[in-house]
Amino acid sequence: MSVRSSAAREFYEAEALRNGWTVKQLERQVSSQFYERTLLSVNKAKMLRDAAVAKPEDVITPEAAIRDPFVLEFLNLKDEYSESELEEALVQHMADFLLELGDDFAFVGRQRRGADASLSQLCTRALVQA
């Protein structure tokens, strides 16, 4: 989404902030040339009031919010896997990666359960003095 005119860009920025537009609403307003239509309008105040109201097509569905699925083929998991299988594969991959980094890095341990909370993957960079 791009707006060539700096005046139009400032208009869209101000209206988006004033009305709390989502990205989808802003895209719709830009694609429908709201700025240009407002300039040509006889009743500018009414157009601005109407633009403040969200349209049903502006609703973001969970599928639209999570558009980019994780690509985890490097873990060699089956099509369906459990959370624990995913965690195991990620931890193993991370441990292998830390080994490749050399002696300055250490994989301290896997997830550990504490009294109040769980501490996730423990890894640290060892400070080695020669």
Explained architecture:
With 130 residues, the chain is mainly alpha-helical. It folds into two domains: 6-64, no CATH class; 73-125, no CATH class. It is 47% helix and 10% strand. It has six helices and four strands. It has helices at residues 6-19, 23-31, 34-40, 44-51, 62-65, 83-101, and strands spanning 105-109, 112-113, 118-119, 122-125. A hairpin with a 4-residue loop joins strand 2 (112-113) and strand 3 (118-119). The radius of gyration is 26 Å and the shape is elongated. The protein starts with 5 loop residues before the first helix and ends in a 5-residue tail after the last strand.
Q: Helix and strand layout, with pairings?
A:
Layout: H1 6-19, H2 23-31, H3 34-40, H4 44-51, H5 62-65, H6 83-101, E1 105-109, E2 112-113, E3 118-119, E4 122-125
Antiparallel strand pairs: 1-4, 2-3
Quick synopsis:
By secondary structure, the chain is mainly alpha-helical. It is built from six helices and four strands; from the N terminus they run H-H-H-H-H-H-E-E-E-E.
Structural class: mainly alpha
Q: What is the 3D form? A: elongated
What's the order of the H and E elements? HHHHHHEEEE
Parts with pLDDT < 50 across at least 5 consecutive residues: 116-122
Give the spatial strand order of the biggest sheet: 1-4
Number of helices: 6
- Roughly how many Å apart are the termini? 53 Å
Helix content: 40-55%
Report the count of strand segments: 4
